[in-house]
UniProtKB/TrEMBL annotation, chains A, B:
GO terms for cellular component: cytosol. This is CRP-like cAMP-binding protein. PANTHER family: CRP FAMILY TRANSCRIPTIONAL REGULATORY PROTEIN, DNA-BINDING TRANSCRIPTIONAL DUAL REGULATOR CRP. Keywords: DNA-binding, Transcription, Transcription regulation. It comes from the Bacteria. SUPFAM superfamilies: cAMP-binding domain-like (SSF51206), Winged helix' DNA-binding domain (SSF46785). GO terms for molecular function: DNA binding; DNA-binding transcription factor activity. It comes from Roseibium hamelinense.
Amino acid sequence: MTDSMNFQTKCHACPLRQKNVFRPFEDKELDFVTKFKTGELQVEAGSTIILEDNKTPHIYTLLKGWAFRHTSLADGRRQVLNFALPGDLLGLQLAVLNEMQHTVTALTDTTLCVFQKDKVWSVFKDYPGLAFSMTWMASREEQLIDGHLLSVGHRNAQERLAYLLLHLHDRAEIVGYAQNQSFDAPFTQAHLSDALGITPVHTNRTIRTLQSENYFSWKQNRIRILDREGLEDLAAYERDVKTLRPLI
Amino acid sequence: MTDSMNFQTKCHACPLRQKNVFRPFEDKELDFVTKFKTGELQVEAGSTIILEDNKTPHIYTLLKGWAFRHTSLADGRRQVLNFALPGDLLGLQLAVLNEMQHTVTALTDTTLCVFQKDKVWSVFKDYPGLAFSMTWMASREEQLIDGHLLSVGHRNAQERLAYLLLHLHDRAEIVGYAQNQSFDAPFTQAHLSDALGITPVHTNRTIRTLQSENYFSWKQNRIRILDREGLEDLAAYERDVKTLRPLI
DNA sequence: CGTCTGATTGAGGCTACTCAAACGCGGTGG
DNA sequence: CCACCGCGTTTGAGTAGCCTCAATCAGACG
């Protein structure tokens, strides 16, 4: 373990902090986070990070790569709840509610910062700024899910796809995963389909339609937004004002 | 205002605490909450409690009555995100993210405890237990939305209705709003329809079908679960283990 | 008794679903 | 080098669940 510690990303040099998307830390907060972080975990594409109902003692921050949160009905129908990108906190429900009702799976090879969930209490006790950050992230996530619920509940297939594409692009862009209106898509049409609540077949047809109308392209795992305005109109989407997010 | 203060519910005598659903408070926490609470608000059925984009300086706890959270697309299609019952925190996103992306509207005449949102920081600074409670509530709400998203994304009309009925019943029961497998339904079919992501017409047909098959009844604004097991099977629903919730 | 809101029912149509087959492509092994 | 996977994508054909439009009904209220 000491060995792996040497290869560990130092919080003071956290690559996420270089990007100008996180609020500034106080020194003592950073010192604490460094102690709070008990290690780093590599999970390869397709593997489970946190399993529903499975109580691990850890929570994670996604440092590198993509993941997704999902639940299923008993008969196997799967809902993708949201995608996770660097900076996202995974397993907060486990720490706070002591229960996970969804699974988190890696889409790409990922790197995770590992924290002991039983130390979350000491965060609240001694580092109110960090505690606030955690709450910020929880609220933010809820806001995103609210958006998806609106989408799945009331948009048609084309609108849903347009919305999701813009959503993914914009989130990828914030963490430096998009350049030039395009980003690497580490998911399959089946993932999109389960996120949108549309069958794979119909998802495919919808994708083809929007592509043929030059709204976007998807070649070699790379998605490019070609007609942002058109997609925004389709989806009635408004880009969030970028707010500096906290990081833990 | 001094006048209304006299009619205010005392936190020490908070009726919600009488019901054995909230975690115990420490005395000093209770003292603080008493100070934190700046007043009480009555909102009548149908009125807006918090308006999307509208930055009020307050957040609320629902003390009495029903409310619902909702957003809409530009063309008016409305998604009911969730229903709120006593003990639920309203406006946390406002306090934490400084932005509300949904509206909260009263379904019945409601009583709300009013808190200054700019004091939320002092909660985090000085009352970690309460801060944790707020985060607990945020996480819990997210968990509920996740459940709805699964429902709207992957259940058919009958399954969605079954799920929502059980969900509402169980939540109502926890706060003492249900007796004998039945509860007062302060909403219309249109509300359900917007929550389920199904048109009012089809919602009506689905309701009639499930009623005619004796799954439940809905007479004089009162919903009664007649065949709980049947509904659970339909919806693949599992009742949550009751956990003591925090209260703020 | 007229009006309003919400619930209900009918008829017809379209979106999205199901079933099924074929295609493209990277990987593997003979 | 090529045949043979296996996974993900694509396309076709027929169907059904849910939608739209529209009218009627029931109850509350002034």
